[in-house]
Amino acid sequence: MVITLQGKLVNGEKFTETVDTEKNYLKFKNHDLVELDLTALGEYKNLEILRISAKKLNYLDLTPLRRCKRFKELDISNTQLSYIDLTPLSQCEHLEILKLEMNKLMSISLKPLSKCIHLEELLLGSNEISAINLRPLSKCKELESLYLDNLKLVYLDLEPLIQCANLSTIDLSTNSLIEIDLQPVAFLSNLGWLDLRYNKMSSIDISPLRACKFLKSVNFDEDVQIEWKDSELDVKSLPEYLRKEFLKKIRVA
User: Fold this and answer.
1) What sign does the CA torsion over 217, 219, 222, 227 have?
2) Residue 122: which of 59, 65, 74, 61 has the closest Cα?
3) Which of 18, 49, 57, 214 is the most exposed, fewest CB within 10 Å of its CB?
4) Strands 250-252 and 225-228, bridge-based pairing
5) Are 181 and 158 in contact (CB under 8 A)?
6) Does a structural domain hold residue 229?
7) CATH number of the domain where residue 37 is located
8) Listed residue (178, 209, 190, 197) closest to 145, CA to CA
9) How confident is the model at residue 27, as a pLDDT?
10) What range defines the domain where residue 91 resides?
11) How many domains does the chain have?
12) pLDDT of 252
């Protein structure tokens, strides 16, 4: 079956493109597009992957995707979108990957993602977001990677991530975080990579990381004071990575 996508170009002209729905993925690229109507995708029953590359895109309604019951991956990156409503994704229960990097998003509600229990990767880096509530992610128990880098975050509560036992990568670099409580990270035994560089913290307590036996990389700014507050420092119980990289830098409270 063939469907037709419509939209509007930067010069005001109408845009149309036919799509063969035999494949389970759609990769769409047009850098003169400012609006794209996804209505026709409601008939694309076997669609699993949608990747949109449109540097001038400033409006997109995801509503038609709620009818795509096999949908697994959405990538809308490097556009002019300042707002996007994720509500339709609450009906995409097989969603595994959501990429919304390098846009102009000022804010975003993750509430619809509480229904996406198979979500594995969430990438929201390089936007204008100054606050974000991670509570909905507590339902995403298969989450493995979380990228919140290069945003405007001043505060972030990691407590909801306690339920994400498979989480292995957290990137919070290049924000404006003054402090962050890593205590919830103590429950993430599979954590391997944590990046907190280029923030505004003067010190950080890394004692919660003692439970992360698979740590391979933890990054802080050079001038951040590394502290150990939560319990007595037992060198033998430290993950090998922490022992090698931070033991001489740790200040025991």
Assistant:
1) negative
2) 74
3) 18
4) parallel
5) yes
6) no
7) 3.80.10.10
8) 190
9) 93
10) 2-200
11) 1
12) 64
